[in-house]
From TrEMBL:
The keyword Plastid is assigned to this record: no
Coiled-coil blocks: 343-421
Cleaved signal peptide residues: none
Pfam family membership, one: FapA_N
UniProt source species: Syntrophothermus lipocalidus (strain DSM 12680 / TGB-C1)
Keyword Coiled coil: yes
PANTHER family: POLYMERASE-RELATED, RNA-BINDING PROTEIN KHPB N-TERMINAL DOMAIN-CONTAINING PROTEIN
Keywords, comma-separated and alphabetical: Coiled coil
All copies of domain Flagellar Assembly Protein A N-terminal region, residue ranges: 12-182
Protein name as catalogued: Flagellar Assembly Protein A N-terminal region domain-containing protein
């Protein structure tokens, strides 16, 4: 139903703002002789004035009421444009300089893990460029469109070791490494460098590529690298693991709590009270003291002070040093001729085999008891199900024990075949040194100079090292 207001002698004017985004109505009592106007006539006047959009009909009615005479009443508003949103770059990694310490499962904060390194793999998506939006146009009260400003396009700034796809929207890594933003450019670094010590300031290091540490690796911290690790300082009671080589320019002082392990070689000035494992060589220019050392090829301490004193040293091919043992008859065990990893596998296998063999025997006794009950036909359904379950477990365990026996036998045959390997002493080997080659053993009871230990026909023989 159309609204109506009693016609009166009124002066009605419509005023439109210069930007045509607002329109006002002013109503005043008209002088004598003014034509009487009503609500419908005012609507026509508004339309004749060109105001066709955003008209507020209740406001027109309000303007016609005596209380509003003489003042401007807003009766129409245009629709402002909505400008487009700027394009942006969506990072697939954290761009924060520091992300803070990790939280453990029980809610504690681990200040050794600061999450400073963001490892990425070759081909991994690093960032996506999102296009700007055009925006939404507006409209004036007179029906004219008001254009919106489109958003500005974003730019992906490509740094080293990254590549954009053909659309220019997706940025990928071309190497394994550490992703970061350098001078507004996304780059992937193949080497992660610590400017000082690995401590609470740096946190633990876990990186897919090479790691360079300008200081020390302090006690309680861990360094893991998919590539090489170079350490300018010392390694304390810490863990250092590498998929490549490890170079410690000073030395390893492990306090019996250090583990240094490389798939390649480990090189250090000295090694003391530490566990060192290398897939290839272990080289100490000065000394190896009271350490447990295993190498897939050789262990060498051939510098001017090159000595191996105390501990347990294993190598597949060769152990060499200027001095082995000490005048105090320090107990020192040397093993060559077999891969230390196979030796360790043999040791672990022997222990597991004994445990499983004992479990198998116990299970066999229990089966005999249940089977006697079955023959006497006095087993309940529950006991019958237990018997079936035990039979299945017994068969599975028996198969596992057979596999272990086969592997155990194969390792023993490998040890028996081991005829290579040697130990070279360029200066002197002291009493207290125990030499193991294959299954043969030799204990040094008197100082021996310039000696080489070799295995011939199952026995250890002494020759000259030169």
């Amino acid at each position: 139903m159309a609204e109506s207001i009693e016609a009166r002698s009124l002066s009605v004017k419509v005023r439109v703002s210069p930007d045509e985004m607002t329109a006002y109505l002013i109503v005043e009592p008209g002088p004598e002789g003014t034509v009487e106007v009503g609500y419908e006539q005012v609507l026509e006047l508004v339309a004749q004035s060109g105001v066709v959009h955003g008209v507020d009909l209740p406001k027109i009615r309000e303007a016609l009421s005596p209380e509003s005479w003489g003042r401007l009443v807003l009766i129409a508003q245009g629709t402002p444009p909505v400008n487009g949103q700027d394009g942006r770059v969506e990072y697939k990694f954290s761009i924060a300089e520091r992300t803070g310490p990790a939280e453990t499962a029980d809610g504690r904060v681990d200040y050794r893990n600061l999450n400073l390194i963001q490892n990425v793999q070759k081909g991994q998506l690093l960032a996506v460029k999102l296009d700007p939006t055009p925006g939404t146009p507006g409209m004036t009260v007179t029906g004219k469109p008001v254009p919106a400003k489109p958003g500005k396009a974003a730019i992906i700034r490509r740094g080293r070791n990254t590549v954009l796809d053909e659309t220019g929207h997706n940025l990928y890594s071309t190497i394994d490494g550490h992703v970061r933003v350098v001078e507004d450019k996304i780059a992937v670094e193949p080497v992660y460098e610590v400017g000082g010590d690995v401590d609470f300031a740096s946190g633990n290091i876990d990186f897919v590529g090479d790691v360079v540490i300008r200081g020390a690796v302090t006690s309680g911290f861990k360094v893991r690298a998919g590539g090489n690790v170079e350490i300018y300082g010392v390694v304390e009671a810490a863990t250092v693991e590498a998929g490549g080589n490890i170079l410690v320019r000073q030395g390893i002082a492990g306090a019996d709590r250090a583990l240094v392990q490389a798939q390649g070689s480990v090189m250090a000035r000295y090694i003391e009270n530490a566990r060192v494992i290398a897939g290839q060589d272990v080289v100490a220019t000065d000394s190896i003291i009271q350490a447990r050392v295993s190498a897939g090829r050789t262990v060498r301490a051939e510098g001017k002070k090159g000595a191996i004193v105390g501990g347990h040293v294993q190598a597949r091919d060769e152990i060499s040093a200027r001095v082995i043992g000490s005048s105090l008859a320090t107990q020192t065990v040397l093993e060559v001729g077999t891969d230390p990893l196979l030796r360790e596998e043999y040791r672990v296998l022997a222990k597991e085999y004994r445990e499983k063999k004992k479990s198998l025997e116990t299970m066999a006794q229990n089966l005999q008891v249940l089977q006697k009950g079955l023959l006497a036909e006095n087993l309940s359904d529950k006991r019958r199900l237990a018997l079936l379950k035990m039979l299945q477990d017994y068969k599975a365990l028996a198969a596992e024990v057979r596999q272990m026996e086969e592997r155990y036998k194969a390792l023993e045959e490998e040890f028996n075949r081991s005829q290579h390997g040697r130990i070279k002493v360029f200066d002197v080997v002291y009493p207290g040194v125990h030499v193991c080659m294959g299954k043969a053993m030799y204990t040094v009871n008197d100082p021996i100079k310039n000696a080489m230990f070799v295995l011939e026909s199952g026995d250890i023989r002494l020759t000259s090292a030169v």
